[in-house]
Amino acid sequence: MGDVVTSMAFFWGLMLLSYFLMQNGMWILNDVVKSMCRFALGKALGPAIDFVEGREGSASKTWMMQGMFWLILASLFTFEGLWLAYDANALHSLSSWGYNPTSDSLLYAAGFAALYGGVGMLIIACSFHIIPKLADTELASEKNGTLVSYLWTLSVLFLVIAAHNSEILGVNIFLIATALHGLAFLAVLINLLLTASERKSALPLPGWLIMLGMLADPVSVVATVLGGIGSGAVQWLLAHLVSGTFFFATLAGISLYVSSSATGNPLWSRSLTAVTTVGAIATITPMGYSHGRMAADMLLVSFEEVSMQSTDGIAVAFLMALAVIPVMSLVANVMMTLRGGDAFVENPDSAGVPEINLGISMLLPLAVASLFIQSDALSHNPELTGMSSTLVLMVIWLVLVPLSLGSAQHLFPSVTGRNLLSANRSRWAFWMMGWGAFFGLTITMMADIAQIEAAADSTGIMSGEVRVVGAILFYGAAVGAIMHTLNALSGLYRGTPVSEGRATSTSIARDDYSLTTPTSVRKILAGGAHLDTTVVPVGESDDPGAPTDLH
Amino acid sequence: MPSDSADSVGEFIQGESEPSSSWVVLAFGLVLSLATLILHGMLFPGRDLPVISDILPVFDGVFDSGIWFFILGVMMGVFAIIATMMTEATSE
């Protein structure tokens, strides 16, 4: 049995054990463990815990705002990385300050900033709101949740620095970053587990998706360490396990909750939710890097190239192909829930819903594209490696960021008690960010393909000129991130209080509505009608049909 | 904001407090940018677009790439966020 299959066996076993313990508790040790965890989250931190507020929603709000700030930095690093692939000396003037960024180092740092800073913090922000709601209880410790957000931000800052230069003054920066990250993650996990343990009723499936996704992150680390993390194949596996659980499974749970909450529609299918839950744990997502450098660096082991035994290769190919099933289930479920029987009638301009539509629409095509790229990367003669880093950027900026940011925006009023400052600015930011990322990265991928075809370097006229256009278009994502952050920040102070309600506007308005079959007033309103719309009954005839007479 | 068919497009592209004719400024800016690019191509065929150090020689050797226009734009955005944070927190 190869290292990868062994690691997967450990992973599945540990996940089953975790699920069993979550359902049944720890017998006589239950109360002792809970008391110790409560102490660890609160009084054990001493006076530091009194520096933060413990009002309901404060933890979620803090994580949300910091996640948005990180998205700005992530988009800036990504933009610079794309530009430097065209002009490697564009930032040479910074070398006088001792900073010599390259395209690779900037894109690597952007990966940490976007995944752990932006998406990760927004996921945790949403989880801190959703899990207590689904469990019908309160977050175990709002104060600890708030305080730990700063520790997490510090860890991401160290990760970003380490991505540029992993050793400064003889100190391994990844060591500090990993220690801080592990500590912060442990606190978040304990907080959520304690909250779930106080549930008043059975946790709905989206809640399980979030909890299992969170638990799977440390479990996958333990499983791969037991399976042999020194191997390049296991490092690759760890990167993909974290991608499929902490990022995919938790976002799936959050998206399902938000799609239902934003439209007022019940979840379209419980069975598909169950398929997504089991599938996310049982398979290996193809979405992610084609190497395990991030996992190796964070676990302080030397990075190895991916090289799989034949048994491992067959198992991985099979499990990656199976991963399309939970993706399809999620896409179908969220889309049908959003559409519902009376689409968007509750609030047609609900902030965040366009982002979720974008993210969920891009999920399936990018998952299938990733399957091809990863299968190629694991073969003996990879030919598409040049496209893999752009495809990862597409997954980040067209799936993970829209889903997490959209969910956070939708939950913003429930968390803060105020609406975002402006629905219009929200729409502008969505278009800037969505189209900027889509066109920018699509054009960058065209340059990658041109480069593969020409087998020339990126300073060639074709790929070089195209690359800079891609970078400039991607700049829209940075502008969109700034607009989103400004909108949320001003909304915290001057947004309309939720208790007063907020009138919404829509660009869809109809002067007349053709009524072909008996229907409800809700469905007519969902079709864009308003109070002054004329409802026109369309005549029907019971005469049998016949060919159209042309003369 | 009530929904009204005649104003629906206007609502979509305007901020809440913007004057209704502000789109003229946006359109004018777009046309001016395109016209400047075309003019530059005609007057200086084959030459790269000027960068900050070409316009302000004091920054020669520092801002000598087009990327700095974009980085300064993000820096302005970040300063706008900091300014918003400070003014919102102290406005009352």
Protein architecture, described:
The complex is a heterodimer of chains A (551) and B (92). Chain A has 551 residues and is mainly α. Chain A has helices at residues 3-24, 30-41, 58-84, 103-135, 142-164, 173-197, 205-227, 232-263, 270-282, 293-298, 310-322, 324-339, 353-377, 385-416, 423-454, 461-494, 521-526; strands at 167-168, 171-172, 510-515, 529-537. Chain A contains 17 helices and 4 strands. A two-stranded antiparallel sheet of chain A has the order 1-2. In chain A, helix 3 (58-84) runs antiparallel to helix 4 (103-135), helix 12 runs antiparallel to helix 13 and helix 14 runs antiparallel to helix 15. Chain A is globular and about 80 Å long. The termini of chain A are far apart. Chain B is mostly helical and 92 residues long. Chain B has 2 domains: 1-47; 49-92. Helix content of chain B is 61%, strand content 0%. Chain B is built from 4 helices and no strands. Chains A and B meet through helix 3, helix 15 and helix 16 of A and helix 1 and helix 4 of B.
Summarize this, please?
The complex is a heterodimer of chains A (551) and B (92). With 551 residues, chain A is mostly helical.
